[in-house]
Amino acid sequence: MAIKTGILSTIGNTPLVALNKLYPATSSKLFAKLEMLNPGGGTKDRTALLMLSKAVEDGKLDQNSTVIESSSGNMAIGLAQVCRYLDLNLIVVTDPKINRHTIDLLRAYGAEIEHVTEADSDGNYLEKRLKRVKELRDSIPNSYWPNQYSNDLNPEAHYQTMKEIIDVCTEPPDYLLAATSTCGTIMGCARYVREHNLKTKIVAVDAVESIVFGTSKGNRLIPGHGAGRKSDLLDESYIDHIFHMTDIDCVIGCRRLLQRESILAGGSTGAVVMAVEKLQSQVPENSSCVMIFSDSGERYLDTIFNDSWVKKTFDKTRKPTQKNSDKNRAHAPTSAILNSKSGLIDERWPNKNGGAENHS
Ligand SMILES: Cc1ncc(COP(=O)(O)O)c(C=O)c1O
Fold first, then answer.
1. Which ligand 1 atom is nearest residue 268's CA?
2. Rounded Cα–Cα distance for residues 31 and 178 (Å)
3. Domains of the chain and any CATH numbers
């Protein structure tokens, strides 16, 4: 293996691993693209690197520039990593939902953090964050907004992700599952599939209460996938199936993945793990399914992997936190999750949500 120069050269080329223990009863072959092994811990490392290096190349960014972006998670960390390496100033506009670990990471990289405290009417903060980004851009000379929601380099970065998958597979997978927010990941992968005329069906995994695919918007607890605004990058004609997963799905999926495969992954990966299970009832025997595992679970130790948080948040004695969630799921005892040694939560807590919405 050759010696690489600098941390940014280690972004991408993440491993694709076969998961034989996750759902042993299925005839499908399941694979995971481990994007959490990027040096910043998530898939947004790729996006940040491409957006900023192109901006430098095009002369939109120099040593005196300030990069400004709205993010409360992986995009912020990806940008912070690249900005530190290139000696660029970075202001991250974020909100109270950002977790402590992410704030500590951003501070360690030297990013400045601007907190928006006033919520939008739906309880989320995206509109207020974007308003603050605009104010900062208007007041700071030589500022640059990568704008991950409409920058074509966002999907462009993930065209490469799909290429890497195809390069190591003996034949293209039957299904590709990715969690969605800006839709950069899924659209980049989907464009590669269409341009190369591959058989791969594209499966989007969104959050209940997210409006990425036009459903009603509301309060979500697990950051990462889902969005309170539509992405300019999404072309729904590329998407074959859509699953909407709840916050508790994310918790169950993450814990199940850890139990069965010893992979500590973040919330959106939990959603993908639950979605691939649902998908099994709709796919032919011996299908191959590749899942994108977007980030590491370390940033979720205070929530998804914290028993008290799970109990406090989802216990049957409390009101359901999600308006649209299935009542059986919202009221099921959290002990079903917390006491399950094998992660076989589904046996005691059957999934009543049925299959995916077809979307061709
Ligand atoms: C953990 C995680 N999963 C999934 C996504 C969705 O990816 P995309 O914005 O490319 O749709 C994000 C986006 O930030 C994320 O942080």
1. 3
2. 12
3. 7-38+152-347 (3.40.50.1100), 44-144 (3.40.50.1100)
